[in-house]
Amino acid sequence: MSLVDAIYRFGKAARNYRHPLGLLAQRALGRPRVEVADRLTGLRFQCLQGADRMLGEIFHTRVYDVPTAPVRPGDVVVDVGANHGFTACWFAHRGARVVAFEPSPEVFALLQANVAANGLGDRIALFQEAVSDRDGTATLLVTPALGGGMSTLDPRFAERLALPVTGTPEVRTRSLPAVFRELGLARVRLLKLDCEGSELAILRSLEPVDLERIDSLAIEYHPDSYLLSDLLDVVLGWGDFHVSKVAPLDVENANLHAVSRRALEEWAGPLAAGESCR
């Protein structure tokens, strides 16, 4: 790394993070748990080494913010694959009500602690479950990769990426239609899916009555588990959603945004309804 690159990266870190030198020191020392805090919001997190890098993607690059369906105070966000709570706290801090799912026992304990430490327990409902295409139980393949952020229900995903598996707990699974029905979620402003290969099966489980509840989706897709074309076929096959690919330059994950016609028309106003511009 050149001196210019090093100065740029440190400047960016100083602008975005509280105590950036302390964060770098924690990483350099290889501590199994690190503390990371956002400068602008003041939100702070205890997380497993490697997971701290997700904060920048969510808070600074904003990979899960859908520009044409912005999350507003009072909106409902469903966070599938909540990890250490970065996404849940990001939207709850902005006034949303969040329903968050994380199956890993170790990560879920840190998720609970982070929600409490940031004073957001009244806005975030937490469930130690995996959202899947069916209700029941499944084996979670726990990996330390990305601080547990790559733990998966999909053996093919783990095999293709050669992930080290350190645990195989049985976890409860719940389908998304069941989540909507049992929690009485009549309208979901944002459905965020990042569940390491389970996204396609979850989307295939949705019925028209479920889709009517959803304004937008932010999906981290995983081509090690399924073809992107298959994912697009499902979303475009719904017939009432606009799809755009999000490819920010400074993150490596692959995201799609999908927005319902209803949300687009609300965002665009009269022009979306076909009125001419005067």
Characterization of this structure:
- With 278 residues, the protein is an alpha/beta fold.
- The mean pLDDT is 89.
- It is 34% helix and 22% strand.
- The termini are far apart.
- The protein has a 7-stranded mixed sheet with strand order 6-5-4-10-11-13-12, with helices on both faces. A 3-stranded antiparallel sheet has the order 1-2-3. The chain has a 3-stranded mixed sheet with strand order 7-9-8.
- The chain has one domain (50-273): Vaccinia Virus protein VP39 (Rossmann fold).
CATH topology-level fold name? Rossmann fold
What is the CATH class?
Answer: Alpha Beta
Characterize the largest beta sheet: strand count, sense, and whether it forms a barrel: 7 strands, mixed
Number of strands: 13
CATH homologous superfamily caption: Vaccinia Virus protein VP39
Mean pLDDT: 89
Write the layout of secondary structure elements.
Layout: H1 3-16, E1 17-18, H2 20-29, E2 33-38, E3 44-48, H3 54-60, E4 76-80, H4 86-93, E5 97-101, H5 105-117, E6 124-127, E7 130-132, E8 136-139, H6 155-160, E9 170-175, H7 176-183, E10 190-193, H8 199-204, H9 208-211, E11 216-220, H10 228-237, E12 241-246, E13 255-260, H11 261-268
Parallel strand pairs: 4-5, 4-10, 5-6, 7-9, 10-11
Antiparallel strand pairs: 1-2, 2-3, 8-9, 11-13, 12-13
